[in-house]
Amino acid sequence: MSTAQEHPESPTFSERLKTGTWQAHGAAEAHGFSQALLSGSLPREGYVDLVAQHHFVYVALEEVAQALADHPVGGAVHFPELRRVPALERDLAFLLGPDWRDAVVPLPATRAYAERIRWTAEWPAGFVAHHYTRYLGDLSGGQFIRRVVQRAYGLDDGSGLEFYVFDRIGSLPRFKNGYRAALDALDLDEDEQHRAVEEARLAYRFNSEMLADLDRSHTSSRTP
């Protein structure tokens, strides 16, 4: 199999993912729901609903991650220290109480998003694309969101925002560099890399549709 690593002038897989999703990433950040969250004007209920939708997405991601843990492609991004589901469950228990499972329902876009992620169990490179879009975002912009959320909702002791806390990975820049190196070491030819980049773009679209569903649910209660 001919790989990009055999042609030094070719972009690496991580570079392709970054440049190929840059526009989609910007569109997600410009979404009305995202802007309300980042400005601190989103009602607390909107934040709680976002946490709930994230739970459905990350349950799917981490189920597939576990299923592909020994696969040469899917297993390359199997970092147990990234797991978010336990943190999300603690956040929901704090925000909604011990019966939180009875209070959360996936929105239609969230359900479709999770189904797509589970489908990639049959296509590990596609799973890697979804993994990249979520966890690299959490390790980057998610850290800013953490500070905004803490101020906006008075979560001064850290309860309710554990999703954004990565205390098992050590140095954040070093971990991100290692993650990108793992992507670049994958034995994927250029066609498969381009296909995975398209799947990463699709992941951003699913995320934007989820945000749109949330936006429709909370626009009327948003602070002007």
From TrEMBL:
- The UniProt record lists the keyword Heme: yes
**One Pfam family here:** Heme_oxygenase
Family annotation (Gene3D superfamilies)? Heme oxygenase-like
Q: Name one GO molecular function term.
A: metal ion binding
Cited SUPFAM superfamilies: Heme oxygenase-like
- Asked if the keyword Metal-binding belongs to this entry, the reply reads yes
Q: Which InterPro entries match?
A: Haem_Oase, Haem_Oase-like, Haem_Oase-like_multi-hlx
- Residue ranges spanning the membrane: these are none
An annotated GO BP: heme catabolic process
Q: Keywords in alphabetical order, please.
A: Heme, Iron, Metal-binding
Q: What is this protein called?
A: Biliverdin-producing heme oxygenase
Classification from the root reads: Bacteria, Bacillati, Actinomycetota, Actinomycetes, Streptosporangiales
